[in-house]
Each structure stands twice: as structure tokens, then as C-alpha cells.
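Appendix C reproduces, verbatim, an entry submitted by the partner laboratory led by Prof. M.T., so that reviewers can inspect both the input and the predicted structure.
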Amino acid sequence: MTVTEKVAYLKGLAEGLALDESKPEAKLIKAMIDVLDDIALSVSDLEDGLDLISEQLDAVDEDLDELEGFVYEDLDDCCCDDCCDEDEEEYYDVECPSCGEVICVDGDILEEGSINCPNCNELLEFEIDYDCDCGCEDCDE
């Protein structure tokens, strides 16, 4: 039973009591049932609106899933890892030619172009070759 149906049932019960309309109790019961009827109609309207919004939200969610698939599918096709994984820091192992020490460096250090070996203090210079034809902005440098 919906709220509207329940209020209609209460209204029928009150009419079946054959209350004397001149008594204050009967006026109070009738006024309360009228208020309940208004509330039940408002709730029904809200439920209808919520159903509509829920349907629209589901449609937007489906569209967003499709768009995400399109966007991330394009990123998966890119051949270079440096331009597509901005949030993931990549580290590289570099071996010092003087002492043979293996140093772990990140992309920022590589872009600076040089670093001193922490073991022998030899200056290690880096040259980055951006040889990528995926069309991304970072690779066109």
C-alpha cells in the first residue's frame, strides 16, 4: 500500500464513523486527514521526481563510462610511458662509468641533465632522446 492509499483508507474509516461535524473532535480529525492527504500527495510527487532523477543519473553514468573508455583507450595506445602516466613517478637505474655504482634516479634528475655520483663524486651527464611518434605534447620537445 502506498502512503496515498493509506490516507484514503483512513479517510474512509473516518467517514464510516459518521462523526458529528459540529463537534470539535470531528473537525480536528477531518483537518488531520486533510493534512495527511496533502503530505501523501507531496510524498508521491517527490517519489516521482526521484525516479526521474535516478533514471537521468543512470543515463549520465552510462555516458560517462563510455567517455572514460574512449579517453583511456586513447591513452593506452600511446607508445611512451613518460607523457601518459603523469601521476606515476618512474625511476631509472644508471651505472656510473667510473666506479660501477648503480644509482636510482627519477625523471626530474634526468631532465636536469647531470648529477654527481654519490659514491665517487664523478659528474654523470644525461642526454634524453625523445624519439616518440605518438603525437603527445611531451614527446615533441
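The CA atoms of residues 78 and 131 lie 13 Å apart. Additional entries are available on request from the coordinating office.
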